[in-house]
Amino acid sequence: MISKDYTILAPEGIHARPATALVRLVKKFKSGISLQKGEKTIQLNSMLNILALSTKGGDQVSVLIDGEDEEEAASAIDVFFTEHLTTPDHT
Amino acid sequence: MTTTKESTRIEGIGVSPGIALGQAFVIRREAAVATGIRVNNAMEVADEIGYFDKAVSRSVAEVEALIAELANRGTDDGLDILETQIEFLTDPQLRGDTVQKIEQELKTAHDALMEVTDALVQLFLRMDDAYMQARHADIRDAGDRILRHLSGSPHTQRVYPQGCIIIADDLSPSDTIALDLTLVAGFATQTGGRMSHAAIVAKARGIPAVAGCGTALNGVDDGDFVVLDGLAGQVLVCPDAETIGIYREKQAHFAEQMALLRSLRDLPAVTGDGCAVELLANISEPDDLDQVIENGGEGVGLLRTELLFMGRDALPDEDEQFAFYQEIALKAGKRPVTIRTIDIGGDKEAPYLGLPKEENPFLGYRAIRICLDRTDIFKTQLRAILRASAFGNFKIMFPMIGSVQEVRAAKAMMQQVRVELENDGIAFDAGMQAGIMIEIPAAAVIADLLAKEVDFFSIGTNDLIQYTLAVDRMNDQVAPLYDGFHPAVLRLIARVIEEANRAGVPVSMCGELAGDPLATRLLLGMGLRAFSMSAVSIPWIKQQVRETTLADAQYVFEAIRGLDTAGEIRDFCKNN
């Protein structure tokens, strides 16, 4: 099992657009992948659950990955978080 | 129209500015109704689950066809929404909950899905974030699409008359995408708000829209003549000829303003002879930043923080304040943001502070005077602002400064908070500048002394005018005496700018005078190079800056020195 912490810095938090891309990424892997925010943990394969978590800019989250392809999944998800969620939008 | 209907005015939320006039086209949603049918045995349960899965795959195919159609039309407007809808349609939680209801409560796929969708819609409607609340419409939309396939009712294609104004309960994301927006002059919806799809699409396309009109909208019939004011958030049903005339004029004025905005937005605010001027905006909350950027603002010259403290029962704690400032920092990015510490007291009340009623609240216990006394409130705010400064480009500004010792006390307090943060190992911007508002005449008079203490000045003209002229502009009987062009006010402003420039302290103006096009040349002539105003004023001031030269501005300033009254000065600015 792999666990990694992130601080969301995208000003909008995890909105529908990145959530769609994230769900699609997660579905490519066999591992169980979940997202933890505070006391709540949700499966990352569900758009409804990601949005219901209402993650905003500044929130701390952890990604938990468990399964045969966890190494691969963790690095793909790390790239996704770095590119889309943990960089403030400095446009 | 066959009957003469009484004129009515419906109030809603203006979600996309502009004026539209046209005939109503009414869309009423037919809500799904539960069948109440029970399934009898395991085989029927399996059948129902099968129907559900089939309806989902048909729905997905339908959305994929829509995506292909978008590609054919050569647009990707709405593509995001459709891609997201596929994820809602195939969501494992949606299927899991529905299947559970079929298996355990023996409901049909139709009824089970209806209940699951309703519960999800309620869940999202109760969320505290406006964006997430608005997602209820996406979930409803996905649920309705599957339900249509379960009940076998085909999707109806509507025909919209040219130039119509759509009147609806709410427009689903799918409705919005399917609309041929070239035919639509405006939208009015019963529900929804700034974050709903109809609002976002309307805004992106420059179509006036009003949301949240409530059930009053039921009184509008197909073909009624309707006027929609997307800025004021009003819908006028069957207005009289005179009203129509007024709104046609407003429509023309708005079009002119938009044209000006478009032509100036990406041009720099530079005078004819090459002097760059900084145009900033005054805001109160994170969402206001969108308008700042749209109007070509380079940053925020005044972030009021009163909104955090008003309309509630208790003080906001450090974390709540931090979240507010951090959201601003992240949204503003590299743009500078000047945060004013709380300016409560005066006419801005916060009952939970238990402040005594005063005879003269504007001359009483307010702003920095409260902060230097109730240091708990002040230090909490300073800590939250400093913590958030690590995420953006912040400056801090103290209001209602009347003396040098107040500045020193406020800065000492800030220094204390910085040491505490350092000791706690919490990040902040150590280089964050600290400045003051010049809004009390005393501060204007001792600008030379204050300049030695601070990193910048911001002239607050609203209070400066009221205190200099001893006029309460909320009092109708004396309001006409309130005038920013009074020679006394202009002399004070000129003095502040001159002393700031002499000391090399940056000076800006954040009062209403900064957004008055009539004053722009005069202020430039005095040496002002940074103006902060409501976002919508920026294009007008930019136009003034670009059409003048420093030489011309200085000439205006020299010339008005010889004039005796506010009226004469205004006339000179108008006519020269």
Notable traits:
heterodimer; A: 91 residues; 4-stranded antiparallel sheet; 4 strands; B: 576 residues; alpha/beta; Glucose Oxidase, domain 1; Enzyme I, Chain A, domain 2; TIM Barrel; 8-stranded mixed sheet; 22 helices; 14% strand; phosphotransferase system (chain A); cytoplasm (chain A); HPr-like_sf (chain A); HPr-like (chain A)
Write structural notes for this entry.
- The complex is a heterodimer of chains A (91) and B (576).
- Chain A is an alpha+beta fold.
- Chain A has one domain: Histidine-containing Protein, Chain: A (2-Layer Sandwich), CATH 3.30.1340.10.
- Chain A is 36% helix and 25% strand.
- Chain A is built from three helices and four strands, in the order βαββαβα.
- Chain A has helices spanning 16-26, 47-52, 70-85; strands spanning 2-7, 32-37, 40-43, 60-66.
- The radius of gyration of chain A is 12 Å and the shape is globular.
- The mean pLDDT of chain A is 91.
- Chain B is an alpha/beta fold and 576 residues long.
- Chain B has three domains: 8-30 and 156-258, Glucose Oxidase, domain 1, CATH 3.50.30; 42-151, PtsI, HPr-binding domain (Enzyme I, Chain A, domain 2); 265-575, Alpha-Beta Barrel (TIM Barrel).
- Chain B is built from 22 helices and 16 strands.
- Chain B has helices at 42-73, 79-89, 92-105, 109-125, 130-134, 136-151, 173-178, 197-205, 241-264, 288-294, 318-332, 368-371, 375-389, 404-424, 441-445, 447-450, 461-469, 487-503, 520-526, 538-547, 550-560, 566-575; strands spanning 8-11, 13-16, 19-27, 164-168, 184-189, 209-211, 225-229, 234-237, 278-283, 300-303, 336-340, 393-398, 433-438, 456-459, 507-509, 530-533.
- In chain B, the strands form two sheets. In chain B, strands 1-8-7-3-4-5-6-2 form an eight-stranded mixed beta sheet. Chain B has an eight-stranded parallel beta sheet with strand order 15-14-13-12-11-10-9-16.
- The longest helix of chain B has 32 residues, at 42-73.
- Chain B is globular, with a radius of gyration of 29 Å.
- Chain B starts with 7 loop residues before the first strand and ends with a helix.
- The mean pLDDT of chain B is 91.
